[in-house]
Amino acid sequence: MPDVEIPLSRPDLGPTEEALVLEVLRSGRLSMGPRILEFERDVALVAGRRHGVAVSSGTAGLHLALLALGIGPGDEIVTTPFSFIASSNCILYAGATPVFVDICPRSLNMDPRGLEGAITPRTKAILAVETFANPAHMEAYESIAARHEVPLVEDCCEALGTTVRGRACGSFGRAGVFAFYPNKQITTGEGGVIVTDDDRLADLCRSLRNHGRTASMGQSNEPGTGSWLAHDRVGYNYRMSEIHAAIGVGQMRRLRSIVERRREVATMYINRLSDNPSVILPTIEPECEPSWFVFVVRLTTGFGVEERDRIIRGMRNHEIGCSNYFPCIHLQPPYAALGYRPGSFPIAESVSQRTIALPFHASLTRRDVDLVCQTLELMISRESLSRS
Question: Is the CATH number 3.40.640.10 carried by domain 15-253?
Fold first, then answer.
């Protein structure tokens, strides 16, 4: 998409991050250094976990978490079809099969009743996504996982800083995984962190991210030594660099103010659009303290996917970045072999056809939000008139 007046997302970076990156560049140590350790501790602390394991992306983190749990061919993982595709791709990476469950129309997360019914003797884990940073049902998922004696993996890639009833996202289940792509609450450019209280799982993830080297060798070992060339298992190059970690350390120092500013922007949108009968706003439960990732609205059921797409094109033509969020995973070509068809998950499919992600980042002004909302309402009015 060409440059727009109001972009869909924009990272919040400043002098703190610049100074920390320059410090790393001048140190000459660009990998496996002290900034990685600091960033891991910072993220684990926010999640209320004992361990943080920095990796190259949230996708890599989910992959390693599943591998560390022993997931492999023949296993089934229950998850949602309404998510970014990485949450299911990581299941395929491990050789397992995703089993999808339709979503709750209010929270847009897996319906706990459907989750309970999807568990079979082949189920080896539940991978629960906090869609758009909404932690609804996480306690229910945790309870279901415990009852069926399968691990819960929390895909909290979109939810850093969110709490529900005082519990932080990232604190549910055996492990959680955060991601730090530039549209997230904080960014490292590319990167992720696995958080867990499980010592063995953390050590195994540390080994797997580093070509299967012994996890106990720590961060201080240098290439060229015997231990550096010894490998306990087949691993991956999923390490995060010191440069990326330095950005993350700077971002974590400002996390509270970034989250608060994003809440202010979300509140502006909610106040501006709350009276529009054609728009369904995101649902935030009263016991939740949100850390907003995106601001995704839905058109009401009178609108279809073609009308939604015309509205998006119209907004882009007016230099306002926006997008659909998300196309259903089970209907995408890489998942055709699983045998799902249109209608398999009617709620997720209906929601998917009517979503519009509006511009959302910390630098949006009230003027920006008003302009976005005015343009959205104009495009909706055009579609409504064309049907009458």
Answer: yes
